[in-house]
Amino acid sequence: MRPFNHTVRVAIFSVAISLLSACGGGHGGNSSGSGTTTTPAGGVNLQVVSFGDSLSDVGTYAPIAGAVGGGRFTTNPGQVWTQDVAQYYGDTLSAAYTIDPTHELKAQSGLGYAEGGATVATPASQNDFLTAVIGDVEMPVNQQLSSYLSAHQSFNSNQLVLVWAGANDVLRAGSPPAATATVQTAATTLAQLVGQIVQNGATHVVVVNLPNIGLSPKGLAASDGGANYTQLSELFNSTLTSALQTNGLQSKVIQVDAYTWLNGIIANFQANGFSVSNTGQACDPNKTPDDTSLLCSPATYVSANADQTYMFADDLHPTTHLHSLFAQHVEQQIAASGLGH
Fold first, then answer.
1. Which residues, at least 6 apart from 208, have a Cβ–Cβ distance to it below 8 Å?
2. Can you tell me the distance from the alpha carbon of 187 to that of 163, in angstroms, rounded to the nearest whole number?
């Protein structure tokens, strides 16, 4: 991991403390779709609940990262796809937990449980993920789900549950044959967690498979050009699909194929409004602390409109524009299932 500049870290902590003191440290809660009378763009009011990793994190680490203009794993201050989807159905998604300057997670009123660095079920202490910035605190998805059920007991028919995880399991698995069992276990475990969500009352559940991690800037920069990440992404996806089918869940969830979707966007990047495809990143590595989009802001963009013209914020995470396009794709798949439009 790249060393985190001590001066920047101290500045982040000191500013974060003052910000937390001024605002009380809390984030606003979610509005319940069922209590809204205005019909949203999606045609139906839904309360959104999200589980996953940095691809879906709406601001777990914002109290610290916000001090340098960051807050989410994208081209800040842009939103991630889960926020876009929530707005489409008349809701506002905020973080279920946020970090404080002492590197502790504090429960908030939001329903965005996804946390950057999270795996499906591996404890945070077994990985080295931005530890100088956030510490070893991120909850894996199984713990996210347990935390939700402990606080809320069940799901309901007015909710839309979004599940996207497994990328960190692939990134940390190594190479086959040793990596094979790790990735397969993560995928089958995720299917089991989806089963728990359904068994606890959820009627609208979106399950997203992995994009082709081998086509990310990180993948392209690997010695094998991303071949291992591609192989493991495909293994995770095929195992997840089989496990959902075996567990009788395929007809009970809305599956979104991020793998095929991203391949198509990359192949036609200019037609989708990008000038740079998967070969560059919008956040300047020389200006962005730790070269992570969590700490990326307009001041560290490579160009003023990089959040719209680049596909990737850093070497793994989507820009604001790519998140927006993916949200639209998810909304289309939800409508195709018969929910809203």
1. 162, 163, 164, 255, 256, 258, 330
2. 12
Q: What percent of the chain has pLDDT over 70?
A: 89
DSSP-derived letter for residue 301 is: B
What is 6-336's CATH number, 3.40.50.1110, 3.40.50.300, 3.90.550.10, 3.40.190.10?
3.40.50.1110
Query: What CA dihedral angle connects 334, 337, 339 and 341, to 10 degrees?
Result: 70
pLDDT band at 137 (very low <50, low <70, confident <90, very high): confident
Backbone angles phi, psi at 97, to 5 degrees: -135, 145
H or E segment to which residue 11 belongs: helix 6-23
pLDDT mean over 143-157: 98
Number of Cβ atoms within 10 Å of the Cβ of 165? 30
* Calpha distance 115→140 (Å, rounded): 8
* Dihedral sign of CA atoms 48, 62, 311, 114 in order: negative
**pTM for the whole thing?**
0.90
The C-alpha atoms of residue 21 and residue 61 are separated, in whole angstroms, by 16
Residue range 190-228, pLDDT digits in tens: 999 999 999 999 999 999 999 999 999 999 999 999 999
